[in-house]
Recover the amino acids of this structure.
């Protein structure tokens, strides 16, 4: 059964829709939001472990900044019930993948590929994709698909979706599964229907404009996907397989724009241009792609807009740094800096780039001073790394603890705190911080293993009584979380 079901869900996530045979909107479904959230957590835990997962503080902050107003708008418009609001994760995880893809998972988790971020030309376009995915979640489309197969347990569904995600990265694997066996019979029942796509578009458009973005974002994103996929039908657009772009969808979104508003080019947006450039440079393209970005930055077209020039130079600088050529990166950065000086967000990006570059070349003091003292995530994480490198782990620990006090689910912050504590010789605390990082990444087993090692260490007389009792309490909490998880199988 699992094999057939796996094939069926691969179809659900990777195949154009057949005529809808879904429960109507009024139907009830057995999968509770809590059960769905746990399936989502199981999938998210694997995504956090995936080498493609990327926690880039700047891009993460940028996407989060687009995402939060959409959530607020969904609340105002009554799309998000208080129950879903509270039970779902509502988190966007970034993937390094160069393909154009975004997907909603059970329980309010979203996956967003840097490939998609890299092709958007405005925040409205990127926000339109997030609004569409958000609406699939608030309308419980995924729950409705999953609830149709009564034979499966949530644990199996989680495994199946993971299989489908893995398969979606490899077209061959997906094809092999699709041709295998009984899948065809179930196909019609498990596809996202046209109705669901239309609903996600329409509700997404309402949420998008309520949040203050231009509704045109939908139209220009659709046009972009349509044109690029026609030129380039090489499987780089898994997004179009999961959300097939029909003429009907394009016409529908165009007709819903305010009367008299002509399809316009997106307004120039320096911050977005820089973030899209960062996404292009950090996506997993390999050495040749990085070299191409460097060459582009060496030959910036004179007729390009200042936003485009800034993007090209920024991508070139990041690419050169990835290629371990910091001198080259610094030259690009020196040309970028005056272009963005008058724009606070742009100037900040250039300053942080300079700090990253200083850190990469071992100039920790310069990195520390350029990272500055702002209590924002990119600054905090960069400054902490620089402080550790500069031999001031206590400064790093203090800054990280302040951050963690208000962001306790920040795995990377806990991980850097562990480094700082370790450098201070605080072995027990370092192990606990490492465990807390694993909790943040939803890997409770790994967290408990680390805490048990810490208990052993405490027993052997390396005593820090307060820390030891915190560790005991955390072990008990994790034991009960793990027991709860085991019951769900
Ligand atoms: Zn969709």
């Amino acid at each position: 059964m699992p094999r057939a079901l796996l094939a069926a869900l691969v179809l659900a996530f990777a195949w154009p829709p057949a005529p809808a045979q879904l429960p109507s909107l009024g139907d009830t479904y057995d999968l509770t939001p809590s059960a769905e959230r746990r399936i989502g957590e199981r999938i998210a835990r694997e995504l956090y472990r995936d080498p493609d997962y990327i926690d880039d503080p700047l891009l993460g902050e940028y996407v989060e900044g687009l995402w939060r107003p959409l959530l607020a708008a969904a609340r105002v418009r009554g799309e998000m019930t208080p129950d879903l609001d509270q039970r779902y994760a509502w988190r966007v995880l970034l993937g390094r993948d160069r393909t154009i893809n975004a997907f909603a998972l059970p329980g309010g988790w979203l996956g967003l590929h840097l490939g998609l971020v890299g092709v958007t030309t405005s925040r409205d376009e990127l926000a339109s994709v997030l609004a569409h995915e958000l609406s699939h979640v608030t309308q419980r489309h995924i729950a409705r698909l999953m609830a149709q197969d009564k034979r499966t347990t949530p644990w199996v569904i989680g495994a199946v979706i993971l299989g489908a995600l893995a398969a979606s990265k490899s077209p061959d694997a997906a094809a092999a599964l699709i041709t295998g066996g009984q899948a065809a019979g179930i196909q019609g029942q498990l596809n996202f229907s046209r109705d669901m796509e239309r609903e996600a578009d329409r509700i997404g458009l309402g949420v998008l404009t309520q949040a203050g973005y231009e509704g045109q974002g939908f139209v220009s994103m659709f046009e972009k996907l349509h044109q690029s996929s026609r030129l380039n039908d090489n499987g780089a657009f898994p997004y179009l397989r999961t959300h097939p772009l029909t003429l009907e969808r394009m016409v529908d979104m165009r007709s819903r724009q305010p009367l008299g508003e002509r399809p316009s080019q997106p307004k120039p947006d320096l911050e977005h241009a820089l973030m899209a450039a960062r996404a292009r440079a950090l996506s997993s393209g390999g050495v040749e792609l990085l070299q191409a970005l460097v060459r582009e930055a060496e030959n910036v077209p004179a007729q390009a807009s200042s936003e485009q020039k800034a993007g090209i130079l920024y991508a070139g600088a990041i690419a050169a740094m990835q290629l371990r050529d910091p001198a080259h990166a610094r030259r690009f950065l020196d040309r970028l800096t005056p272009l963005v000086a008058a724009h606070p967000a742009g100037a900040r990006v250039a300053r942080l780039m300079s700090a990253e570059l200083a850190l990469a070349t071992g100039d920790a003091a310069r990195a520390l001073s350029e990272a500055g003292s702002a209590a924002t995530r990119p600054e905090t994480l960069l400054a902490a790394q620089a402080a550790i490198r500069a031999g001031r782990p206590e400064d790093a620990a203090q800054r990280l603890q302040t951050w963690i006090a208000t962001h306790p689910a920040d795995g990377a912050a806990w991980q850097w705190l562990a480094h700082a504590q370790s450098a201070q010789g605080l072995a027990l605390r370092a192990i606990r911080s490492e465990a807390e990082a694993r909790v943040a990444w939803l890997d409770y087993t790994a967290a408990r293993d680390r805490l048990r090692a810490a208990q052993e260490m405490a027993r052997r007389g390396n005593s820090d009584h307060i820390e030891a009792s915190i560790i005991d309490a955390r072990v008990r909490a994790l034991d009960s979380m793990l027991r709860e998880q085991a019951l769900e199988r």
About this structure: The radius of gyration is 24 Å. The CA atoms of residues 29 and 421 lie 48 Å apart. Confidence is low (pLDDT under 50) at residues 1-28, 171-190. The longest strand covers residues 91-95.
